[in-house]
Design brief:
about 350 residues; mainly alpha; globular; MBOAT_fam
């Protein structure tokens, strides 16, 4: 408890210092672009300090919640710092009025701290749904949805979730079951945390974006679709705070990916590989957008290639022609079923 109190005091001290910094930059006779740059540099330096602190050995703050997750004090502070950056950008752009009390509530708002949905400072406490009684039913259904994901995650942990399980000589059915359960389990963990935090925010009456509204079969069709459909509020934050101000170019994509890596932690080789692959994939799809086809077969082929690459990197499944063909058939059938559902809705 004492350790948590020290962290809270530290966050409050940083918030007050940054508030004074942002107000001073806002009043300075500089261009909006230069003011944004000052805010970006200050936040990047803060992220570097946080990354260095997290790498210190023997720090109890690195222990995850319930000693069973990777979400710790440092991870919470990364989201806190992103909201600090949002406040700074909106403050210096004069799109929001600085208010220290609101700023403190915004940074320390519990549903946003727990790795939950991102909310912009100018929209925080402004758009409310307190008067809508339907929010209780919505929050209850979303809580049930999160608990369902939790049950699936527990099932996966007891069956196929181990990426190092010996499936090199397994049958085709066992390979498919292992790969699909493993992928669904990796999707279930963040979905559980994000949507449960969203439910808590809705109960409190705060209007925020639902981060995960589709399953991995629909969002995993391309690198670009994954970034738009998974952790939607974080994607919108990066787009509004970095991508658009930098000109919405290929360079902007690289900068956003680099900042995403910094946001998740520079010391992890896994994050380096993940964001390196995503940067290459998003840039490739952006440069070759004319080659993208709405044809069901071509789309299923591309999704199969991405899925095979993903399972090859995250499991020890031996890839052969039968495995590739079987996954292609499953993805093609899934797209066909979704297309028929969409036509039925029309």
């Amino acid at each position: 408890m004492a350790h948590g109190a020290r962290w809270t005091i530290g966050v409050l001290a940083f918030v007050c210092a940054f508030y004074a910094f942002a107000v001073a930059v806002r009043a300075a006779p500089f261009s909006a672009r230069r003011k944004r740059t000052y805010v970006w540099v200050a936040c990047v330096l803060a992220y570097l300090v946080l990354d260095e602190l997290e790498s210190e050995p023997g720090d109890v703050a690195r222990v995850g919640i319930m000693n069973a997750t990777t979400f710790n004090c440092y991870r919470a502070c990364r989201f806190d710092l992103l909201r600090v950056m949002c406040f700074g950008v909106e403050c210096v752009e004069e799109s929001a009025t600085p208010d220290l009390g609101k700023f403190v509530r915004y940074v320390l708002y519990p549903p946003l701290r727990a790795k939950g949905p991102f909310c912009f400072y100018r929209e925080f406490e402004r758009h409310r749904c307190d008067h809508d009684r339907r929010r209780w039913l919505y929050a209850a259904l979303e809580t049930v949805d999160s608990l369902t994901w939790y049950a699936l995650l527990e099932f996966a942990h007891r069956t196929y979730y181990d990426p190092f399980a010996d499936v090199a000589n397994a049958s085709l059915f066992e390979k498919i079951s292992h790969a699909w359960t493993h992928t669904t389990a990796m999707w279930a963990g963040p979905t559980l945390i994000f949507n449960l935090s969203h439910a808590l925010a809705v109960i409190d009456g705060q209007v925020v974006i639902r981060d995960v509204s589709v399953d991995w079969l629909k969002s995993g069709t391309s690198f670009g679709t994954f970034w738009r459909k998974f952790h939607c509020s974080l994607h919108e934050a990066f787009v509004r705070l970095l991508y658009r101000p930098l000109g919405s170019s290929v360079i902007s994509v690289v900068v956003v990916m680099a900042f995403s890596l910094l946001f998740h932690g520079l010391k992890s080789k896994a994050w380096f590989v993940f964001f390196g692959a995503n940067t290459a994939g998003v840039v490739f799809e952006r440069c070759c957008h004319r080659l993208r086809s709405s044809d069901r077969t071509a789309a299923a082929l591309y999704q199969t290639a991405l899925f095979v690459l993903f399972t090859k990197c995250t499991t020890n499944i031996s890839i052969d022609a039968r495995y590739v063909v079987a996954n292609f058939v499953l993805f093609w059938w899934n797209r066909r079923a979704r297309d028929e559902d969409d036509e039925g809705d029309d």
